[in-house]
Give the backbone structure.
Amino acid sequence: MNLNVGIIGATGHTGEMLIEILLKHPHVKITGLYNTGKTSGRICDIFPKFKNQLQLLCTQPDFEHIRKECELVFLALPHTASMDFAPKLLSLGKRVIDLSADYRLESNSIYEQFYKTKHKDKEGLKQAVYGLPELYKAKIKNAKLVANPGCYPTSALLGLAPLVSVGVASKGATIIVDAKSGVSGAGKKVEKDYLFSEIQGDFRAYKVDTHQHAPEIEQVLSKLAGEKVKVTFVPHLLPIDRGILSTIYIKKPASAAGKPKDILALYKKFYKSEPFVRIKPEGEFPRIKDVVGTNFCDIGIKDSKDLTIIISAIDNLLKGASAQAVQNMNIMYKFPESCGLL
Amino acid sequence: MNLNVGIIGATGHTGEMLIEILLKHPHVKITGLYNTGKTSGRICDIFPKFKNQLQLLCTQPDFEHIRKECELVFLALPHTASMDFAPKLLSLGKRVIDLSADYRLESNSIYEQFYKTKHKDKEGLKQAVYGLPELYKAKIKNAKLVANPGCYPTSALLGLAPLVSVGVASKGATIIVDAKSGVSGAGKKVEKDYLFSEIQGDFRAYKVDTHQHAPEIEQVLSKLAGEKVKVTFVPHLLPIDRGILSTIYIKKPASAAGKPKDILALYKKFYKSEPFVRIKPEGEFPRIKDVVGTNFCDIGIKDSKDLTIIISAIDNLLKGASAQAVQNMNIMYKFPESCGLL
Amino acid sequence: MNLNVGIIGATGHTGEMLIEILLKHPHVKITGLYNTGKTSGRICDIFPKFKNQLQLLCTQPDFEHIRKECELVFLALPHTASMDFAPKLLSLGKRVIDLSADYRLESNSIYEQFYKTKHKDKEGLKQAVYGLPELYKAKIKNAKLVANPGCYPTSALLGLAPLVSVGVASKGATIIVDAKSGVSGAGKKVEKDYLFSEIQGDFRAYKVDTHQHAPEIEQVLSKLAGEKVKVTFVPHLLPIDRGILSTIYIKKPASAAGKPKDILALYKKFYKSEPFVRIKPEGEFPRIKDVVGTNFCDIGIKDSKDLTIIISAIDNLLKGASAQAVQNMNIMYKFPESCGLL
Amino acid sequence: MNLNVGIIGATGHTGEMLIEILLKHPHVKITGLYNTGKTSGRICDIFPKFKNQLQLLCTQPDFEHIRKECELVFLALPHTASMDFAPKLLSLGKRVIDLSADYRLESNSIYEQFYKTKHKDKEGLKQAVYGLPELYKAKIKNAKLVANPGCYPTSALLGLAPLVSVGVASKGATIIVDAKSGVSGAGKKVEKDYLFSEIQGDFRAYKVDTHQHAPEIEQVLSKLAGEKVKVTFVPHLLPIDRGILSTIYIKKPASAAGKPKDILALYKKFYKSEPFVRIKPEGEFPRIKDVVGTNFCDIGIKDSKDLTIIISAIDNLLKGASAQAVQNMNIMYKFPESCGLL
């Protein structure tokens, strides 16, 4: 009862993580590894750590090979590259989980504004399901094309969804997401900014209130709220490899003051059936070390009269990318949701 | 024209930094080193890096020695310890710069709430001057007892003072200080929380909205504003040794919307004569690496209609502690303000 | 077909790692968690990362509970503590894998010299099998008591065994092991030396040629060589959490010059059936990143006329401790050797 | 009594350090900053940390400007670039301190072998003085052209010179230098190998026994010994920014066994007038933290019958490059040797 999967973009960070996870998944066989850059050869030569574990060749994408060998394809490609592959894969009858941003934003103009190119696959966009399992599990089950959420949006949305869903983020609320991410969030860009000597001992904000993940967060929250929700989003770069911690401030509108009474209880109830969201007891808050290497999202809450503070932590490469993609796969193929992820 | 200075608490982080700075100061001679713990011996044996530079013995505090040898005394002691020393030193006619929190808070009840002990020196408290040179230079000049500001308050106050002083933080404003600090802020506590294996690769919030520096920030801002100012303060622990970066969010009250028009210009003007505050050009923001090892505070600004974001960065051990103390000393003794600090 | 295992010392580094590995092992059920310190409670409260995964209580060691619930017991205790538990467990008919040093050294006087106490269980010592699978697999199969090797010895012995076994380390050879380890090698000691502010940005040697692992290395090599082998061992502390890299220099004696001709071939042959030793191609050398999180030992070789350089890398907590212990368990219970470890 | 100095290569690591040091030097004025890459503008815009301290423009090298404005020129250029500048500067009557490798190696064929290009300035090579003050102070005083030593050679040579000078490294000795360096040793290369995600948490050897600094070490030692000295040199990359620690093993030849009796005393005597070499007491060894940010070289010694272990530590950018260059300048211009360096 093996599922044959392929990965396009196998040599990037998220591709590497997908391989690591899927190698241990009891119901999956990796049958195709592809990448679009210059690197090629056996994956265990490209990543010596896979030696003695996986001999598969990593080649340029080969649709004929995919047609015969893969049932599901993960696209672990840079933004704007996925939409070149998804339509063809869907036309071959394959199911697709896309880890890029290409199928996340419903608005073409917002996509163009942030990703600097026109969207090429409006057909695909229509059928894409936003792959945040805690909110959209039912739709993911039957999806042909899943748009796996961004890392920052995963951490922000899981932190905000319960409050927004009870109307506290209605008109007049102020929502600030002060997010901090390890450098692997930037992929493997060989740029001065990501040199050890630049990152080590440093900390800085970047794309202050202009990051491409802000509209993704606002789109999902607005749907949940049933009205336009605005978020101030300031990402920062941590001198660590992996992990995101978001400190979220919600200044409630006067109309919402005092309700709901017990926010901690609200969160516990909202996530009570979710295997990968853990709510901290009162007075405790998450830390990155507890979630790195896992698919968990830990959430801590501090509530006061007019301001609520939510802190959420995830591993940006796992719950923020590759492990969440496998969680989506598990849902799509009716494996236990946490199969291969605990 | 040498000033003879002593340091009580010479073996802690801030004491060590004071020695480093003062060794290079052209008008200062270190004539007394004292500590209250068990460590004793020559300072160059306690800190091998001072070998070939300073042979002085570090002893238990010796008022007779201080009386004869020191003109100015730095108290680099833990909170609640300084108030045991300051009155005696003042009575000997010495001037004192206290790096602890003991003389910062005007309210005894707030002091007791956060530092868990009654204040013992109300007399000293009355004459203490809050040593933030950019706000209180005139008073520092003649101060007998300077309360050197906390590291977080320095970063928050320099980031907020110009806006608060023009009334934008009047009633109805929301002020959030999301601060991130390196671990040296915690001194040299030998506790599990500060082990390498706990800090490295991690990031977490602590004392969420309950940190003892919040009332210090609110006290100074309230004076500047002429009305009570409330701040939400959430500190976080960075996996680096030194540096604080504070991301400050000011939701302006409806009454203040749109004014002042040009906040960048406001900040440049406010700090135009200050040698240690540097305002970043529009679109640029500070990073910790640029201020570590210096007495500078770098500030960046992002303004929008109803929300202003201010980001400030300092070295917590320098502008946030020991170098600011030397800056205060320079002012008190009419040395050039940046003497020994550039 | 589950094996019920207990862990005494479940709250230390190696205990934590054992839990992590065994949770994913398809043939194992953790049925007892014990520790000897003050910490107690559910393991998922002690290590929040195990929340939603393992609810088991961690209690003081309880032999009655062990008697009924556990078949195999891991001792993840500090040195000198294990020998208080092993005899009793063996008398209950349990098999034991001891991760401490207590059953590694055959000489009581050397044990006493390095561990500062007399050995209390000479009976156990006699039946203990040194658990380095690549050298002693046959004996491990039937062992009642396995002495799991130290982390440094694992890295040194795997690097040296092939050369020593062909007689190159005969009289007159000089063997130097310049080893570098991450701080987790020191366990979770709350001491000044292991604070973040002491380790980060630093690097230093310690116990220069006096480390307790040197006699362990020499004992095994001497047996392999059939004559006394002397090793100069200098460990260093790396500013990382996990991993050991040993750079080993072998100055061959005149008698051995030029033989064996092809050392790389010798190593490949020696380890050809070993799933966890990977020999690098000529001109390539191991790095810690490739082995962290795995049970692999990577080895690189540079040979010249009279000096051979061997570089080996392992994860000190896995191949150097907990994963190697599970590898030994697999061998003892006839599970596939790499079961749960890939 | 100011010395006007220029720096060619002001935007690299060693150029940046030179500026930092010279800004605090009481007898120096920086009058020219030049670089050969694309970066240009005011140095305080290129390095924001110099804001409020140095406004000087950094331009392409301009010999006319140098002729008028600079008396001494530091060449902080990549290897093979310096020899394009030195001859012209010397012909203008300027004195030159070259921080590259261009004037260190006397043998043209060895230079060509390691730096992959023919040497272009044999005239300059003849008059160049090797700028290791502890060995060549007298020659440096009158040098026109100083070849500032490499960082690894500085740490190895200071560790080996006393022993070699008494003939212990005569024929038959084995000398191994196992060196570990922070990444700033590689300059500011924007390459995958130096990304934060590659370095952090990692440790590895590189250029095993093939590094270009080995012949530099052997050349100086051979001169000291009066016979050919061979060194096995294995550098490693530490996950820190700055610092080198070299662990040096000397297997004495049979002829030298037992002499000198007291190596610690030998070292103390050898360096007794040197302000920047500190010998550790018996049983203590250097650590990188004690020398980072300083011009000191700390040395620790462990001697046994036939093997001596020497451990030396420096800051690769300071004693290993820029501060040593300033030390040379002090000697050349008869300033106190440690002026501006303590």
In short: The interface with chain A takes residues 23-24, 48-49, 51-53, 201, 275-276, 278, 280, 289-291, 294, 296, 298, 342 of chain C (CB under 8 Å). Residues 252 and 306 of chain C are 6 Å apart (CA to CA). Chain C has a mean pLDDT of 94.
